[in-house]
Amino acid sequence: MAMSADGKIATANRQLCSFGSSADSAFLYELRSRADAIMTGAATLRAQDADLTSGGAVYQRRRQRRGLAAEPVRVVVSSRGKLNPHLRIFREKGGPLVLLTTKQVRPQDQAALERAGASLGKFGTRSLDLAAALQWLARRWGVRHLHCEGGGELNQSLFESGWVDELYLTVCPRIFGGRQAPGIAEGEGFPSLSAAFRMELRTVRKIGDEIFLRFTRTSSQSYTRSSTAKSETGTVQKPKVVSSRRKRYPSRPKSRARNTDPSVSVTS
Ligand SMILES: NC(=O)c1ccc[n+]([C@@H]2O[C@H](COP(=O)([O-])OP(=O)(O)OC[C@H]3O[C@@H](n4cnc5c(N)ncnc54)[C@H](OP(=O)(O)O)[C@@H]3O)[C@@H](O)[C@H]2O)c1
């Protein structure tokens, strides 16, 4: 995530799309080039009209040298599935486009999104069963390393479910202010210090006026929700970080997964 010096990821009116430097932007594409899939929340998609592609031939070659498909799987999260099929993500050529949604999605919206090229995975009735959705991404789409680019709502649900392994944060020399301006993790938030998601600072780099931080989950991090909750489709399993890579997307669903737990990094 790119964050202002006062801890915001957008201005209060949420109109601002990008405020990092060219170094931050290049780093974002470099991080994309390490992941099987790039994920974003519906509000970010609407605000930024992002295409979630690799970034072009240079990054495609990097991906292929790493044994990844030239273009990442593109994943959008929306419980209602109300996305405009004219958004850029539907028009730009890229990896497979997957929508993680719920049974709330209306048949006519589903039909329009499928016509526009999206594959829908429905997990949960009203709220998204994130654990089941991520396991499906691993099983159906071969996603081991999932790179999430926000926004704050989606990030917080990942932190709450304990799936985040790494956080890349760029602190930018701007002050946005605004009590409605979002931060890197929104939602209800953790209720106490002891419940907070804990991370360790691994690297600090200063480039120009920005600071690039990399955090990893502390080894002692407990799973706030997933250790106790049941998913709608079964028990939520504690995720493992898996580094194996596949060259291609699986062509059809597999009935049994060898390992269904993706690793997740949050960045933008
Ligand atoms: N500075 C940065 O690096 C950065 C990065 C990303 C975004 N941003 C900014 O952040 C703002 C958007 O942030 P946000 O927190 O409002 O949005 P967000 O997380 O991108 O999107 C929220 C929406 O995504 C869906 N969603 C997210 N988590 C879900 C879950 N667990 N289950 C089901 N659906 C889920 C819901 O869509 P439905 O309502 O359709 O169900 C929800 O309303 C924008 O201004 C964007 O530009 C900044």
How would you describe this structure to a colleague?
With 268 residues, the protein is an alpha/beta fold. It has a single domain, classed as Dihydrofolate Reductase, subunit A. It has helices at residues 22-32, 42-48, 57-65, 88-91, 107-115, 130-141, 152-161; strands spanning 2-4, 37-41, 73-77, 97-101, 118-122, 145-148, 164-172, 199-207, 210-217, 230-231, 234-235, 263-266. A hairpin with a 2-residue loop joins strand 10 (230-231) and strand 11 (234-235). It is globular and about 45 Å long. Bound molecules: NADP nicotinamide-adenine-dinucleotide phosphate. NADP nicotinamide-adenine-dinucleotide phosphate is lined by residues 1-2, 9-10, 14, 17, 40-44, 47-48, 77-80, 82, 128, 130, 149-154, 157, 182, 186, 268.
Helix content: 10-25%
Order of helices and strands: EHEHHEHEHEHEHEEEEEE
Q: CATH H-level name... which superfamily? A: Dihydrofolate Reductase, subunit A
At the fold tier of CATH, the topology name is Dihydrofolate Reductase, subunit A
Largest sheet: 10 strands, mixed
CATH class: Alpha Beta
